[in-house]
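Cast an eye over this sequence plus tokens and explain the fold to me:
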Amino acid sequence: MTPITAFEGHYEGEAAIWLKAGRYEAAILPGIGGNLICFRDTDSGYRFLHEPGAEEMEAFKANPGIHGIPVLFPPNRYEDGEFPWNGQTYHLPVNEAKTGNHLHGFLHTAAWEVEEFGTGTTDSFVTVAIKVDENHPSYQYLPFKYTVKLRYTLGEGGLSQQLLVHNDGDVLMPCLLAFHTAINAPFAPGSSAQDYRVKVTIGERWELSSDRMLPTGKFQELTADEVALRGEGVYPFYASMDNHYTAAAQNGRNRMELTDSKAGVTLVYDVGTSYKQWMIWNNGATEGFFCPEPQINLVNAPKVDLPADDIGLFGLEPGEYWEESSRIYVK
């Protein structure tokens, strides 16, 4: 039996906190966005997350968006970098030249602090946090004071994630967040991408403009493959996907299930029902990995004229908390 441990180490030369518990191991990179960079079943040789190899580390550090579990705050695209909120318009840097939008916020590239790590009788854990105030570089764009904490726990039930946002300031702040979770397909040695079927609890598909990838406020009819995506499952690379959907819980749960028919196992990514939207991106239908991204809000939500509750556009009052739990496990 592998001992239950939590320790400081390295991942490809970067400072990391490693967790081990039974057959599982995971590592987080506090200095690079608090990114949970790997989650593995060492007994079976499974690598569930898309990990950067040594030759990819420089590109990963420059743009840590497609490996591990990056934190997006605020997530996805904002038209012209404009972010209207509570009677004011804030201006985010336009960092996606081809669309003229701001993309993915500030936390996935920022340094987080390790708050604690350790072990219990049945699991190991780590908590990382980032505190944004007038001394943080992103404050010039979104002048709100807040703390985000991420706690990962590793045990027999896989990898659990506890996310907490607290408004440290004295004004209403936007709470828009997502994870650009990058899942391997295949994750099992000896399997191919063709052995995999994915199911996601999507509802309706948002129509996105072709030139700027922004919601029009309308829905599109689901294709037969998308109906299968929310039903019996579909090959994850059946077509190029950069698609946006409402979330529609099934059996009270909001989740992605990825089944390896050859290995006879299913990876479950249960994200909780606070995430009202999904983005699904598969790197131009390139086999290897895809990103089922749980998201609180609709893309470009501050500039979409729809009811706030329908598009996940909400704020935290001074002193308020928001939290949600997710879990990745095998069944």
Remarks:
- The radius of gyration is 19 Å.
- The CA atoms of residues 4 and 120 lie 8 Å apart.
- The mean pLDDT is 96.
